[in-house]
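Question: Now follow the chain.
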Amino acid sequence: MNRYLPRLLAISAALSISNFVFAQVPDKPLPTQPEKVDSVISEEVKENVLDNIPVVSLDENDGQDGSAQNISGQANSGRNPFTNAAAYNFSAVRFRVRGYDSDLFDTYMNGVPMENLDNGFTPYGLWGGLNDVLRNKTVTTGLQTSKQGFGNLGGATFIDARASKQRKQTTIGYSLSNRNYVHRFSFTHSTGLNKKGWAFSFSGSRRWADEGFTDGTYYDGWSLYAGVDKKINANHLLSFVAFATPTESGRQGASTQEMLDIAGTNFYNPYWGYQNGKKRNASIAKSFQPIGILTHEWKINSKTNLVTAASYSFGNRSTTGLDWYNAPDPRPDYYRNLPSYEDDPVVAAQILAALKNDVNKRQINWDALYNANYANTVTINNVNNIPGNSVTGRRSLYILEERVTHTDRVNVNTTLNTVINSHMDLTAGLTYEGQKNNYYKKVNDLLGGDFYRDLNQFAERDFGTDPNASQNDLNNPNRIVRVGDRLGYDYDINIHKSSAWVQTTVKFHKVDFFVSAEHSYTRFWREGNTRTGLFPNNSYGKSADHDFYNYSVKAGVTYKINTGNFLFVNGSYVTKAPFFENAYLSPRTRDFVQNNLQSEQIKSVEGGYILVAPTVKFRVTGYYTQFRRGTDVLSFYDDLNRTFGNYALSNIGKTHYGAEVGAEVIVYKGFTVNAAAAFGRYFYDTRQDLVETLDNTSAVVSAEPVVYTKNFRVATPQEAYTVGLNYRSPHYWFVNVNVNYFDQVWLGYDPLRRTPKAVDGVDPNSAQWHSIIDQIELPSQFTVDAFAGFSWLMNNKFKSLKKRTFLVFNLGVNNLLNNTGIVTGGYEQLRYDYQLKDINKYPPKKFYAYGTNFSANVSLRF
C-alpha cells in the first residue's frame, strides 16, 4: 500500500482541483488573444531539461488568431501543466513522454526541420546556451495539428529565432551552478525593426567548469548567434541567422555496482586518472557544427502566407577513447580487474584492498600506459608496402583515438497557409533534406610512442596465414600512423529524404476537425573510403541504394462543450523508413544490411478533456500506440570471440498506453497549486528476431528466431507524479516547491540473455532461469525541487536611468533532499557467460542522478 500511496495522492490532487473549479468556468467567450505567459522558472535554471521534451514558452508574438471557433488557439493558451512537469520536474530521471524515443519529437528552426537523418534525434547541443534568442516557440503535443509542419507522434516544437522576432533589449547575465558547468556569462542585444526595415540581433555565451559535478569531468563551451532581417515591404520579410556552439567536455561513464561500492560513491567515473598530479579524462567529447538559415516570408494576400526556408550545416562531433594493441585492458573497472572475477577469496581480498587504498588502481593509470609505450622499441619493415622502407621507434601499445563524425547537411522547406473561408483552412508543405556523414577514426595521442600500426589485431590473430586479412585498408597496406592520421574505419553515409504534406482544418461553432496526410521518399547508401582485408568486395566504394516510400495520415475532432470545456480525439497511422544506424550490420567494415529491411508501422490514438478558465488549467489525455516491424543494431566487444560483435534485431513490436493529467489552479491571491501525473505501460509485445555477427567474419554466429522479450518494459519511468505550490508576489518575486515521485522504472536489457541458447539446460521453473530471463526493476524514487527569484525595476531607485532597466535574479535547487540513490539510466552489458550461466560475471552498469544541485542566475536587462 505504501508504494501506491504517493501516486494516488498525486492523481487525487489533480482530479480534485479540476472538480473544485469546474463550476467556475465562465459561460462567455474567452479572450481572442491568449494571455501572455510569464516564465516562473528562468531558462538558466532549466539548463538540464531533458532534450526530447518540448518546452512551452509563449510571448506576445504567439497566438494572435484565437477565436471562439478555433480550438487550437484556446486549448493551448497559457502553460500546459503536464508538459511543464514533464520538462522540468520529471527531468531528473530522464523521463520520456509516453515512453517515446527522441525521434518521435520534431523540432523546426525558422521553418526548417533540425533532426538528424541518421537516427532522427534532434541535436539540441548545436544551439545550447542561446536561450535568450530561442524563446519564441510554438509547441504541439501528441497528434495535434499545426500550421507549421505535419508534426510527429509525440509532437513538435517550432522555434522562431529571426532577428525581427526578438524583443528589443540588451541583456547581460551571469550564472553559477554545480552541474555540468560552473560559470556562465551571456550577452544579447536585439534592435527590433527600425524605420528602414532592418533588424539585428546578436547573442553569445561562455559556459565552463574545471570540474563538473562528477570527478574527472569538465566543460568548455562557447555559443554565438547573429541574425539580420530585412522587411522589404509589407508583404516580404527576408531573414538570415547563423549560430555555432563549439563545445568540449570530459565525459562520465557508467559502471557496475561493485565498482561504485569500492569507490564509495554512486558518482564514480572510470574515464579519468591522474597524470602528473592532474586529472585527465580519456573520453573527451567535442562538437563544432555551425548552422546558417535563410528564411523568406511572403504574405501573398490577407488570407495566404508562404514561408520558405533553407539551411546548411557542417562540421564535426567526436569522442576520444583508449585503444590498445596486444596489451592488457587498461580500463580500471574491466571485469577481470575486479575482486568478483577471482575464485580465490584471498586474492579477491587483496585486489579489493588495493582498489580501495590506491586511486591509481581504481582509475586509469596514465603513467603505466606511457611506460609501456616507452619500453616498446621495434622496427617495422616495408612500411606503406614499400620494400626496404623500415622504420624504428617506439611503437605505441596504447593510444588515445578520436572517433569523428563529419556532417554536411542541406534542408529546404516551404509551407503554405491559406484561409479558404470562415470555416476552413488549408496548409501544405514540401521538404527536402540531404545529409552526408563521414565516419572515421584518427590518432589523438600516441601516449609517448612514436607511431601506431593501422592493423586489425583481431584479424591478425585469427587469420595469421593471410597477410591481407589484418589490413584495415588494402589500398594503403602496412601503414604506420601518427597524431592526426586516420586509422581503422573510414566510410560515408548518404541520406536523401523528400516529403509533401497537406492538412485541412474545419471549424464550426461546436465541432472542429482536421485531416492531414504526408508522403515521403527516403534513400540511403554507404560509401566506403577504405578496402578492408576481411571484406575487400563489400567495404570500398558505393553500396546498393535502399529506397523507402512512406505515408502518414492523421485526423482529429474536437467537441466544444462551452467556451472553456473541450473534448478531443485524434488518431494516426504512420509508416517510417528505418534509420541508417539500424539498417547496416557493421558499417565500419562492410555494407551488409539486415534481412528483409522494411519500414516500421505505427498506429496511435489519443483522446481527452481540456479545461481552460481564468483561475484553472486542467488537461487529461489518454493514449494508445502500437509499433510494429521495428529494427535495431547493437555493437559491442565480444569477449567469447575476442572481437567486435553485432546484434541485428528485427520484428520489434511495442505497445504504449496510458494517461497524462495536469492541472494548475489559482487558490488564493498569488498562490497556485500544480499537479501532474503520467501513468503508462510501455512494453515489448513481440518475440524479436536476432542475428549475431562478428566483424571478423561474414558468417552468422547465431540466428535466434525467438528472443524472450515479450512483455519486457521500455527503459524509462512508466509512472511519474508531481505536486507543487507556487507563490507569486505582487512585488515581483516568486517561490515554487515541487515534490516528485517515480515508479515502474526498468533497466535496459541484453537481448542475447533472453534466447533459448542462453537458458539451454536450465530448468524453466528454477530461480536461475528467472535470474537470466527476467528484466531488472529499479526501486521507486522521489525528489524535491525548489525555485525562487525576483525582478527589480531599477528606475524606481536610480532616476537617471533613461531606459527601463531590470535586475533579475533566479535560483533553482534540484533534488533538495540529496537523494543520491536515483538510478537515471543504465544497461545490461552485451555479454553473457554461456558455460556457467552466471549473470554476475557481466553485471549491469548504471548512472545515478546528481545529488543536491543548483543554478543561480543574475541578469541586467535594458
The radius of gyration is 28 Å.
